[in-house]
């Protein structure tokens, strides 16, 4: 059982894999719009807490297309590392980009769960990284194959989490004013009923 502490902004690096429209077309494990919202929320979270981000794409010129614009717009200064293999961890440039951050806690989000997410996760664990898979910011071809891939990664030592848990774990205290505004805005925009509640509380409930 892992005894690692809760996430602090100084600890993780975020690896975004193949968040491209051509691959999103193949997602059948969840609603694609919800998935896209989750991926955008995670990218915004990384920006709000100043996490280093490594982005990798594949087949962007022949099938998959570039990083989806709504995600790229959140991270305009992050250039994607284009590769030809399914396992991003078999691309020396991806591994070097992660290693250069000096961080050993890895957050992973991407498409598709069965291969381009699970393969680098398994490889990074073998290389000694503590890996958390942001499961609701990953999509698989079917619900069953997505779930089986998550189970395999968890059995190998990966921790399953969600984008909202990542944000709340990094924030933890709503009096952390330096990230409060961004964190709250992300929750309001992407966290469904919880976000609606925060908006309501801000706009409608006034202290006596």
Quickly describe the structure.
The protein has 9 helices and 6 strands.
In whole angstroms, the N-to-C terminal distance is 47 Å
What structural class do helix, strand and pairing data support?
Answer: alpha/beta
By DSSP (H or I, 4+ residues per run), the number of helices equals: 9
Return the average pLDDT rounded to an integer.
95
Approximately how much beta-strand content do the residues carry?
A: 15-25%
Number of strands: 6
Largest sheet: spatial strand order = 3-2-1-4-5-6
Quaternary status of these chains?
single chain
CATH superfamily: Isochorismatase-like
Q: Which bin fits the share of residues in helices? A: 40-55%
Order of helices and strands: EHHEHEHEHEHEHHH
CATH class categorisation = Alpha Beta
User: How would you sum up the global shape?
Assistant: globular
User: What summary fits the major beta sheet?
Assistant: 6 strands, parallel
Q: Which CATH architecture?
A: 3-Layer(aba) Sandwich
Radius of gyration: 17 Å
Poorly predicted runs: none
Structural domains: how many: 1
CATH topology: Rossmann fold
Protein name: Hydrolase
InterPro entries: Hydrolase_YcaC-like, Isochorismatase-like_dom, Isochorismatase-like_sf
Domain Isochorismatase-like: 13-163
Keywords: Hydrolase
């Amino acid at each position: 059982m892992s005894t690692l502490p809760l996430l602090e902004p100084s600890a993780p690096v975020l690896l975004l894999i193949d968040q491209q429209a051509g691959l999103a077309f193949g997602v059948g494990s969840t609603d694609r719009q919800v998935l896209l919202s989750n991926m955008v929320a995670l990218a915004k979270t990384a920006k709000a807490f100043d996490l280093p981000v490594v982005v990798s794409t594949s087949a962007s010129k022949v099938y998959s297309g570039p990083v989806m614009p709504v995600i790229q717009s959140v991270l305009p200064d992050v250039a994607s590392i284009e590769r030809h293999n399914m396992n991003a961890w078999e691309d020396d440039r991806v591994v070097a980009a992660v290693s250069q951050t000096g961080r050993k806690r890895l957050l992973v989000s991407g498409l598709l769960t069965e291969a381009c997410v699970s393969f680098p996760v398994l490889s990074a664990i073998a290389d000694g990284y503590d890996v958390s898979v942001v499961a609701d910011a990953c999509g698989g071809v079917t619900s069953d194959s997505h779930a089986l891939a998550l189970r395999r990664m968890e059995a190998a030592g990966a921790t399953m989490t969600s984008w909202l848990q990542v944000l709340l774990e990094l924030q933890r205290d709503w009096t952390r004013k330096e990230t409060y505004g961004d964190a709250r805005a992300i929750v309001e925009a992407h966290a469904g009923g919880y976000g609606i509640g925060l908006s309501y509380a801000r706009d409608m409930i006034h202290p006596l």
